[in-house]
């Protein structure tokens, strides 16, 4: 039927393939946000001039597959049908993005031209980018693909070998990691078997020396160290103000080392986000809490996520379950910082486009650092600030605003004295601090069981006041602070939350006066000195 | 014999073997030319024959661009109009084929017909 009359005399030597089947169907997964959605890739080989048409709202990345799939198929010694090939991605209502569609499209066409057996095709999801030589290239988002395949109760996933370990993080699914298209065809014809990706290596606990950073390397800065311990214990957002070189960055970098270890579910979430962003190098489960420190020139799309076509998670999502560190926070563009409101409130970010809204998780502990004034020396006992008062004031104004509404702890990080720099004995190790933090978190989880929250920082104001259970003295301490420091309603709630965390660190069910005093000390830098005498 | 002529001969031979009747060859009108008009049953076929020597510059059918396809549709319309009575007796289905012919070094044609090409 391909040729007129189809007699052997005029059979074309380029098309010896028998076209018994004209239709093929395989499964693929489109990644939207971090969620995979099962897509049927249909291929039909029909009459007409040779062409490859892709229908069903392919995104630009999927359209690109048109140019890659044919050379890849021919490179591995298979035939590309010299006919009109129509590929349809169904359901057609959602835009499909990403390079992972190369392999399913190729498999659909091979099935439609009867070059692979169609029977096993329905049990697997295919995903992966093809090179022109037919090799399967490491592809972003494979973890999300595997999770979707497991959710759809399919037997397995066929992915690039470079992504096999990543896909194997998902339980209850067979992973076929293939180096090229030829092996995928061989697998379906039962002529090739994949090497088992090592499951075991991924299931060890967090490495004992996760990262090389440790809190014991920080000299002096007792107040700041304590403040970060409280921040870690309650999940409180923190702002550090101090002159350049005081150690703000050093402190912030060590915050993840005292945060409680991630559960497997949390680790999978973090790994999936990094996978979608294409930042998962070795396909291993990420076990250390992430810290992201975007430069202050970051764009809205870079910080919150977005981009044209395929929506990438931004820094707020890459910091999910970890720490977002904004150094020189006053230098960030104001409209960019405004975008942090929703993630700080809800622990997620929604990116809305004409085609629909995409949601990424973004629950992080914020640590912002800033100089006290443009020159950096305001309040320094040994060096005078040279900033014109108006500029210094303007600088402070930028520091306040929408961001600080969600910050529980504000602390001053002073320049170290020479004695501190040279003399001080090493501080506590991160492991020791982390043990206390884990215990405090456990108390919070226990108390907040049955609510959507897991840490003190997440509690709404009213609930914080109910849960705090303050002694009369603590309450008195708080009410006097309201008068003498003109504490606002929001500041009031924050002091209560932080005091609750400090009490948790001391394994106390009741918030006592000293807890409240310390909490108020962590509220505003100016209070720190005055409270030192009281507490 | 001219290159195009060789290709057309090969195409005609193949169509005849498949039971087609040749209604016209190189039918001309002021707008252009249709290489072959054929008929079998109630199907009328307009065929564009493309011939090339060797495959170095890609297969011949690639020369049938969108623009050429539009022109062939127009020419087919002209043909149907000018032969209205004869065509009416024949049937109703109309099909556009592309016959792609590649000549090897010894001048032997290798024919590939794309039925219903557009």
Structure write-up:
The complex is a heterodimer of chains A (535) and B (118). Chain A is 36% helix and 16% strand. In chain A, a hairpin with a 2-residue loop joins strand 15 and strand 16. In chain A, helix 20 packs antiparallel against helix 21. Helix content of chain B is 33%, strand content 39%. Chain B has a five-stranded mixed beta sheet with strand order 1-2-3-4-5, sandwiched between helices. In chain B, a hairpin with a 2-residue loop joins strand 2 and strand 3. The longest helix of chain B is centred in the middle third of the chain and has 17 residues. The model of chain B has no long low-confidence stretch (mean pLDDT 87). At the A-B interface, loops of A face helix 1 and strand 5 of B.
Q: Residue share in helices of chain A?
A: 25-40%
Shape of chain A: elongated
Q: Name the poorly predicted regions of chain A.
A: 1-20, 200-209, 525-535
Largest pleated sheet of chain B: 5 strands, mixed
* Rg of chain B, Cα atoms, Å: 14 Å
Q: What does the overall shape of chain B look like?
A: globular
Sheet/helix structural class of chain B: alpha+beta
- Beta-strand percentage range of chain B: 35-45%
Q: Identify the most extensive interface between protein chains.
A: A-B, 17 and 18 residues
The fraction of residues assigned to DSSP E strands of chain A is 15-25%
Strand order of the largest sheet of chain B: 1-2-3-4-5
Number of strands of chain B: 5
Largest sheet of chain A: 5 strands, parallel
The total of helices of chain A stands at 21
Gap between N and C termini of chain B: 30 Å
Q: Tell me roughly what share of residues is in helical segments of chain B.
A: 25-40%
Give the key terms.
heterodimer; A: 535 residues; alpha/beta; five-stranded parallel beta sheet; four-stranded mixed beta sheet; 21 helices; elongated; disordered N terminus; disordered C terminus; B: 118 residues; alpha+beta; five-stranded mixed beta sheet; 3 helices; 5 strands; 33% helix
């Amino acid at each position: 039927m391909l040729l007129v009359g189809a007699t052997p005399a005029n059979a074309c030597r380029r098309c010896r393939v028998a076209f018994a089947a004209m239709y093929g169907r395989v499964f693929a997964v489109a990644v939207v946000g971090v969620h995979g959605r099962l897509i049927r890739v249909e291929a039909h080989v029909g009459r007409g001039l040779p062409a490859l048409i892709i229908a069903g709202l392919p995104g630009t990345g999927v359209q690109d597959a048109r140019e890659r799939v044919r050379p890849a198929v021919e490179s591995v010694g298979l035939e590309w049908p010299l006919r009109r090939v129509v590929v349809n991605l169904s359901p057609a209502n959602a835009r499909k993005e990403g390079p992972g569609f190369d392999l399913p499209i190729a498999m659909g066409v091979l099935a439609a031209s009867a070059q692979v057996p169609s029977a096993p095709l329905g049990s697997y999801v295919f995903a992966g980018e093809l090179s022109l030589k037919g090799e399967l290239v490491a592809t972003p988002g494979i973890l999300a693909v595997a999770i979707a395949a497991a959710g759809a109760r399919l037997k397995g996933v066929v992915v690039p070998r470079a992504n096999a370990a990543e896909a194997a993080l998902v339980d209850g699914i067979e992973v076929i990691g293939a180096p090229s298209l030829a092996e995928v065809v061989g697998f379906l014809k039962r002529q090739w078997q994949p090497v088992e990706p090592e499951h075991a290596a991924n299931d060890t606990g967090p490495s004992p020396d996760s990262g090389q950073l440790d809190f014991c390397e920080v000299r002096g800065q007792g107040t700041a160290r304590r403040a970060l311990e409280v921040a870690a214990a309650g999940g409180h957002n923190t702002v550090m103000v101090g002159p350049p070189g005081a150690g703000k960055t050093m402190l912030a970098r060590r915050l993840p080392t005292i945060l409680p270890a991630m559960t497997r579910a949390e680790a999978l979430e973090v790994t999936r986000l990094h996978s979608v962003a294409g930042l998962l190098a070795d396909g291993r489960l990420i076990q250390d809490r992430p810290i992201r420190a975007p430069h202050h020139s970051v764009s809205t799309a870079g910080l919150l996520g977005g981009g044209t076509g395929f929506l990438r998670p931004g820094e707020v999502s890459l910091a999910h379950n970890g720490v977002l560190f904004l150094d020189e926070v006053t230098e960030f563009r104001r409209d960019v910082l405004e975008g942090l409101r929703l993630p700080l409130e809800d622990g997620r970010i929604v990116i809305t486009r004409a085609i629909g809204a995409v949601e990424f998780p973004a629950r992080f502990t914020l640590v912002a650092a800033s100089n006290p004034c443009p020159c950096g020396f305001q309040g320094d006992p040994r060096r005078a600030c040279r900033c014109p008062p108006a500029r210094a004031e303007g600088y402070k104004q930028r520091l306040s605003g929408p961001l600080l509404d969600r910050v529980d702890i504000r602390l001053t990080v002073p320049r170290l004295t020479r004695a501190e720099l040279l003399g001080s004995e090493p501080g506590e190790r991160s492991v020791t601090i982390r043990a206390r933090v884990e215990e405090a978190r456990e108390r919070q989880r226990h108390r907040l069981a049955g609510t959507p929250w897991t840490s003190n920082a997440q509690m709404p104001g009213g609930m914080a006041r109910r849960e705090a259970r303050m002694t009369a003295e603590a309450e008195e301490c708080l009410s006097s602070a309201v008068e003498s420091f003109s504490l606002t309603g929001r500041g009031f709630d924050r002091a209560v939350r932080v005091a609750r965390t400090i009490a948790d660190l001391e394994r106390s069910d009741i918030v006592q006066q000293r807890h409240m005093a310390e909490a108020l000390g962590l509220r505003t830098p100016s209070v720190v000195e005055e409270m030192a005498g009281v507490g | 014999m001219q290159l195009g002529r060789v290709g057309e001969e090969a195409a005609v031979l193949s169509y005849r073997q498949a039971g087609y009747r040749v209604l016209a060859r190189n039918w001309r009108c002021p707008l252009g030319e249709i290489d072959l008009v054929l008929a079998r049953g109630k199907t009328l076929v307009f065929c564009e024959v493309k011939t090339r020597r060797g495959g170095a510059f890609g297969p011949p059918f690639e020369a049938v661009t969108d623009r050429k396809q539009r022109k062939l549709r127009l020419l087919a319309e002209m043909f149907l109009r000018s032969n209205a009575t004869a065509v009416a007796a024949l049937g109703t289905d109309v099909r556009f084929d592309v016959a792609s012919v590649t000549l090897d070094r010894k001048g032997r044609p290798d024919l590939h017909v794309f039925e219903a090409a557009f």
